[in-house]
Design brief:
Oligomer: single chain
Number of strands: 7
Order of helices and strands: HHHHEHEHEEHEHEE
Largest sheet: 7 strands, mixed
Helix content: 25-40%
Distance between the termini: 52 Å
Number of helices: 8
Shape: globular
């Protein structure tokens, strides 16, 4: 005996299998808690006093807090919003990733004038200072200097690419390539009937969920979550969603991930 105190190993270096499992579980929980703490207050974002009356009206049918929570958008992220249109969702994402994040809003060159003016107006407002406009085709959506994105959103526009001059396989390959490993792609669209596939994009403005999923997974994406917050099982899916009829429309939300 030398009188020295026994050597105490740090907890992380204990070798017992049970101890290791407990420590590992604790580390995972701590990591998850830290990630959750870093999420912004989505309700506060939606309640921002500088949001437009038009956007507040859209909120009533979109309930955007659920979408933001599903995407887990947070400050510092690099995001691509495909088919940004007038920029309703683009601006919400920009607010969520501010002040250090950026949102690229992609639109084709033939975007309608009304939507174009609304999007350009957002770029001039304080909430749009971290939005970058990309006027590019769907199957070549970003320039070469845009890469390692954390998140891509593609909301209610994928079905339109089925009747446009778009190479969807190339589009999906490009989306996969510009995400960083482990990055996410969130797609929402209007549900078509079983068997409709991609054939009713122009007539009903819908796409069959399973058909879209097959196309996206074919380039390497893995489905990791599904959102049911816009589901309406009573929808017969046999009518066009444009112009709006006031009838309930079943809408699916899918989250895909790029391999690590």
């Amino acid at each position: 005996m030398t009188g020295q105190a026994p050597l105490r190993r740090p907890l992380c270096f204990m070798t017992g299998s049970l101890t290791f499992a407990v420590v590992l579980a604790a580390c995972v929980l701590m990591t998850a808690a830290t990630a959750q703490d870093s999420l912004p207050n989505y309700s506060a974002i939606i309640a921002s006093p500088d949001r437009t009356d038009a956007d507040l009206q859209t909120d009533k049918r979109r309930d955007p807090a659920k979408l933001l929570a599903f995407t887990a958008a947070r400050p510092g992220m690099k995001v691509l919003d495909m088919g940004a249109g007038g920029g309703y969702s683009t601006e919400l994402m920009a607010r969520a990733v501010a002040p250090s994040g950026v949102v690229y809003g992609q639109n084709p060159s033939d975007l309608g004038e009304r939507a174009k003016m609304r999007f350009e107006g957002r770029l001039k407002a304080p909430a749009g200072k971290n939005i970058v406009s990309l006027v590019r085709p769907f199957d070549d959506p970003v320039p070469s200097d845009v890469h390692d994105l954390d998140l891509i959103t593609f909301l209610f526009f994928y079905h339109d690419t089925t009747y446009m001059t778009v190479d969807r396989a190339e589009m999906n390959r490009k989306l996969y390539a510009v995400l960083k490993p482990g990055g996410f792609l969130v797609i929402a669209d209007h549900s078509a009937r079983a068997g409709d596939g991609a054939s009713v994009g122009k007539t009903f403005h819908r796409i069959e969920e399973s058909a879209l999923r097959r196309e996206v997974e074919a380039v390497g994406f893995k489905l990791v979550a599904e959102g049911d917050f816009w589901r309406h099982p009573e929808d017969p899916r046999d009518f066009s969603i444009q112009p709006p009829s006031g009838r309930a429309v079943d809408e699916f939300v899918l989250k895909f991930q790029k391999s690590m």
